[in-house]
Amino acid sequence: MSRRQDRQPPTLLGTRGEERLDLTPAERSYVRARSWTLLKDLARPVKWKLLLTAALVVISNAARASFPLIIAWGIDWGLPRLVSALDAGESAVPVVAGVGGAYVAAALTAGLLLGVYTWLTARVSQAMLLDLRVWVFRHTQRLSLEFHERYTSGRVISRQTSDLDSLRELLDQGVSSLVSGLMFMLFTGISIVILDWRSALILLVAFVPVAIAVRWYQVRSEAVYRESRVSSARMIVHFVETMTGIRAVQAFRKERSNDSTYRQLASKYRDDMVRSLNLFGILQPTLVITGNLTVVAMLLFGGLRVLDGTLAVGVLVALLLAGKRVFQPMEQVAMFYSAFQSATAALEKVSGLLEEAPTVREAEHPVPLPDTAGQSNGRIEFTDAEFGYGGGELILPRFDLTIPAGQTVAVVGQTGAGKSTLVKLIARFYDLSSGSLTLDGVPLDRLSAADLRRNVVMVTQEAFLFSGSVAENIALGRPDASDAEIQAAAQAVGAHEFILSLPEGYDTDVTKRGGRLSAGQRQLVSFARAFLADPAVLILDEATSSLDLPSERQVQQGLTRLLGDRTALIIAHRLSTVEIADRVLVVHDGRVVEDGSPAELIAAGGRFAELHAAWKDSLVG
Ligand SMILES: Nc1ncnc2c1ncn2[C@@H]1O[C@H](COP(=O)(O)OP(=O)(O)OP(=O)(O)O)[C@@H](O)[C@H]1O
């Protein structure tokens, strides 16, 4: 793929420009080539089965297309022989057995092979889809945060659901119907040439309007289907966004406006689908009319020749049969051609998603931590560091910062100042735009993912719980932990008591009634998770302003125990947390403007001193 990447239009790399409809010919051919590469990659493991299926399709259709030939043979050769045999008082069995046997053999071959290749197609298509599904999931999960923030989960869902469904429809029946229809037409065409090449010329002429109609449909429907993939994705994005943000939706009474937005998006999708059906509505009658006119022309031309004795009756019957049948699969082919167009559009999007590469890449030749046991002591150092999201505008202009092992650092500052950005760099959710960031002297981007994840843990604001029991959620910190270790971790952060009071204690399912935890309880579970993981560096984005006082106190105690003697960075929203910090960093407009112990900063009388004074006042009030 890399060779192609050199000369591709940069506007279309990965998912970029996937909603664009006005592709240039070069872009279109790039996107098509990418889809083909994906299809070939998917087909590789089932290559032999695919070849076998193709062979069966060919043989089965050749057998089916031979029916008119056998009928012509039966009428023009079999019938006279049958009559003369009967007249001569000889047995008619050889003639009847010959013609009848050939017909039965052709019918059985066509029918049995149809059964086998239908079965094989299902297996092949399901195997390819399974691979693709798993591939899309694995790939998307590994893409960096930067990608997910830009692309949104709604789009990922639409790729994984509606796009893969389009592909499933095509692979399940579309491809075999398409190929078998085309094969049948080809063989029937050949049989017409064998029967009478003059009539084949009529067929050739008839294919001119057919080819024009199909080409017209192809061009139009490609654009419409590409548009429908975009509108379907937009509809799903809106749906997912509404449902994931249902609390905000209800709190702000956004239901009505959401309804109308959704209706608009769904109507656009409907319009696109109607347009594609309309196109088909023009193609289909064109094919039917051309087919019928061709048969009439063949009948006229052939009939006249039968009358003057230059064409056998059997051949005419066979020609009419074949002429009628040659156009039959055309409709089927055209119909599956729409499935094909829809699936092609889907494949374009899915292949774009798969072309995305993580911006935060795992080191190819990881450097081990100085400590042989892979245990970090937790010293962090930024040197000449700069950062802007997506390499864009600098959010954190050039800075140096050293955090010695074991220090508890509170990061404060107004909203949007760059606090989260700073700490996310340490968890390597993003890479620096320039400069270096090291853990125990090893650049973060040279560490193995295992070393990084073991030593640096970030507890996010949302305290996300996965479906499963409370114990399983804590064990995420260290999947091989024993029950006793899980409980010890919960005890250490002060979560044990409330967990025991749940209906099934540690086994309570967090998604079930009774297992739904409060914000503070979720926070404690995520503390226990981090405690169990026992990282050298702990990052906390604490957003506990919504907690009531008792649970806040509980969380505060859990927090103190969690911090222990590890290096910790806490985005402190509450000044009570700052009091337990060794050092405070005040961030303003992406720069550390104050740096010192809480007492020093209060004494210095700067921003932090102001904040602190305001907080003290609020407590008194
Ligand atoms: N994923 C992102 N992509 C682009 N810009 C971002 C992204 N996340 C944050 N920013 C921008 O970076 C700046 C710093 O944001 P950051 O989240 O670090 O602030 P913060 O100090 O943590 O704020 P808060 O206290 O509100 O969480 C803001 O201007 C924000 O708009």
UniProtKB/TrEMBL annotation:
Molecular functions per Gene Ontology: ATP binding
SMART domains hit by this protein: AAA
InterPro entries found in the cross-reference section: AAA+_ATPase, ABC1_TM_dom, ABC1_TM_sf, ABC_transporter-like_ATP-bd, ABC_transporter-like_CS, P-loop_NTPase, Type_1_exporter
The entry's keywords: ATP-binding, Membrane, Nucleotide-binding, Transmembrane, Transmembrane helix
Compartments, record wording: Cell membrane
Keyword Transmembrane appears in the UniProt entry: yes
ABC transmembrane type-1 domain residues: 51-342
Entries under SUPFAM superfamilies matching the protein: ABC transporter transmembrane region, P-loop containing nucleoside triphosphate hydrolases
Bilayer topology annotation: Multi-pass membrane protein
Superkingdom assignment: Bacteria
UniProt name for this protein: ABC transporter ATP-binding protein
Keyword Lipid metabolism (UniProt): no
